[in-house]
Amino acid sequence: MKLFSYIRSFNSKYALTATFIVGCFFIYGCKNDEKMIENWTKKKVMVEVGKNIESYLSQESKVKAKLTAPLMYRYDADTNYTEFPKTLHVDFYNDSAKIETWVDSKHGKYFEDLDKVYLWDSVVVINVTGDTLKSADLWWDKNKKIFYTDNYAEYRTKDKQIYPGKGLEATQDFKSIIFKQPTGIVHISDKEFSSDHK
User: Fold this and answer.
1) CA–CA gap between residue 18 and residue 16 (Å, rounded)
2) E-assigned strand segments in 77-160
3) Are 141 and 167 in contact (CB under 8 A)?
4) pLDDT tens digits, residue range 28-59?
5) Is-contact 119 134, C-beta < 8 A?
6) CB neighbours (10 Å) of residue 108?
7) CA-CA distance, 155 to 147, in Å (whole number)?
8) pLDDT tens-digit map of 126-169
């Protein structure tokens, strides 16, 4: 009887120890599983790469712009965007499918959710008459068809020159250009003023 009690007691202690050890492994295993589950379920940043890009933007069955770039990265993350890290060139077309303006920049990002393009580093915009806009950085709003920046910008034409200003908003065809804080001299011809102002 004593031997049976001893064996029973020994088995209970062994079973208790075994349960404790297995429980520790189970808890440790759960911690690993939680980390693995987190890694599996968290959103990964997916990247698509394209080379020698030629892309067209159309609205109402009309081509509005053509973009060319040697390299493109498209990121699928919380905010989807496309980056052009090695220069880009964009031709903008009017309703007659003729080029009205073109843009060159060393870098650019297109934010899909905003329908806006951010350009930076040596941004130059030129229209068909030769009017030129230069800026360190520039936004293009696809829906409003405007360029804008809060930073330094310079606008020039053949018959007059507008020196740098801080902050600018311009329509895509340059028919309207507004400097928020002009900081330089404006040269214009005498024809711009009527005789009443002389």
Assistant:
1) 5
2) 81-84, 88-93, 99-105, 107-111, 116-127, 132-141, 146-156
3) no
4) 444 556 666 666 656 666 888 999 999 888 87
5) no
6) 25
7) 12
8) 999 889 999 999 999 988 989 999 998 998 887 777 767 889 99
